[in-house]
Amino acid sequence: MKDINQKMAKGVAWMLLFKLVGRGLGIVSTIILARLLMPADFGIVAMAMSIIAVLELMGYFSFDIMLIQKQDADRSHYDTAWTFNVLFGLAAALILFAIAGPAAVFYNEPRLVVIMYILAIGTFVRGFENIGVVDFRKDMQFNREFNFMFLKRFSGFVVTIPLALWLRNYWALIIGITVMKVFGVILSYWMHAYRPRFSLATSGELFRFSKWIFLLNVFEFMWLRSADFIIGRISGARTLGLFSLSYEISNLPTTELSMPINRAVFPGYAKMSSDQSLLQQGYLNVLAMITLFALPAGAGIAAIAALLVAVFLGEQWVDATPLIAVLALYGTTNAMLTNTGTVFLAMGKPHYLSIVAALRVAVLIPALITFTRSAGAIGAAWTYLAVALLFMPVIFGLLFRLLDLSVARFLREIWRPAVATIAMYAAVTTFTGWAGTAAGMPGQTGRLIGAMIVGALVYTAVLLFLWRLAGRPAGAERFVADKLRARLGNGALGRLLP
How many domains does the chain have? Predict the structure, then answer.
């Protein structure tokens, strides 16, 4: 157990490092592209990617999850998974060529035809990615996983930005996406010695597990991408561009913290799945860490949305301000829920997730159509938040039953960060309101920096106060304090830590 926890902790560190570095590139890229391109450019790319994502669902059986969850998977399983990935990639590419024209008519956007032809090439090539790289996660070699994912991401960055400076249109995004997919395939064979062969030997076994993953991915796609179709159809490319970029920015600090953690701990959960008490404690440890960082990050983005738009995006994006604020709050709910899915998958119960995902989509889509028609993009944003909040008790209730976990035990892990986040949000909104009217205050950049400092100080102070008041229990706060003390040693800063 101790060895697994240590590997999980190292994996979390590597995956968080990847997200920090990758998102650093993403933030720089988004800021530059937002200055160089117009909302309509982002909108037309979102239209094309939404269609491609529909077709790629054919290959979303997530065989990698099955290979990790199945501890005794052999070569036949790996080769069969790779073969299906190739076949699905080929089928998706052919369909993309066939429907490019009808898609352009649906969106009333003739430029989509050539765009989809180019993106189809990347879809086909991506299917050949070396299945052996799954072992980076299965064997908990997260340093190699980091190198693979980072180099693939970096290839898109170094292509997209120069092209945007030169072309000043959506083609920079299209070419960058395609190059990243092609380079990822080349990189996978360079980094891992496994050489897959065509085989369908274990297709029945793979599909018995992965059919539920496929359904889950279908419903998750409908959950995430319904807005692309509905907003694009009802309100056009500009409004969809505003929503897409707002979603990207607002969810950066929440999903980008929780997703790498969940990616790193899944192999550990799979090894713990035979012992309910170990898995329960492992889940609570990870939940506490996600809550510690994701809650204040999401609420902080919501509180400073106007300043973020003014400083980083410019006047053409001012309509994104309320969208970022609402979607950031949605992101915090999403971050809290992601770790539950990892537990269900590790225990070999993906059908739980699939059923709940189907119910969520059944509620979301009619509500999304209704409120997008009446209120535009902001109506869509509020719909996502409301439906997410509606289903939180359902998902947690299933998890509590599965792990024999009490509500009181769950709340003990999250109440301190939750209270500290509320205090931080109140402090930041008060500061930004006062700074916007007080005489002699610095410009918007200075106000943004001031708001971030106020938020960090208030959150940390309230959190530490509540932790001391609770008797300094073991948990996320103790873990972070111990790690910082180990780094800082016995110096002045180290002695200040609790």
Answer: 1
Q: Are 283 and 404 in contact (CB under 8 A)?
A: no
Whole-number Cα distances in Å, 305 to 328, 439, 495: 9, 22, 36
Quick: pLDDT tens for 240-257.
888 988 888 787 766 666
Selection from 234, 347, 366 nearest residue 283 by Cα: 347
Could you give the CA distance from residue 221 to residue 212 in angstroms, rounded to a whole number?
Answer: 14
Q: What is the DSSP string of 356-403?
A: HHHHHHHHHHHHHHHHHHHHTHHHHHHHHHHHHHHHHHHHHHHHHHHH
Q: Say how many CA atoms lie within 13 Å of 383 toward its Cβ.
A: 28
Considering the domain boundaries, does residue 154 fall inside one? Answer: yes
How far is residue 399's CA from residue 341's CA, in Å, rounded to a whole number? Answer: 9
The fraction of the chain above a pLDDT of 90, given in percent, is 25
Q: What is the pTM of this model?
A: 0.71
CA dist 378 and 128 (Å) reads 40
- 167 belongs to a structural domain: yes
Tell the residue number behind the tokens 């997200």, with chain if given.
19
Q: Token digits for 141?
A: 């070699």
Of 36, 64, 287, nearest to 176 (Cα)?
A: 36
Structural domain range at position 112: 1-214
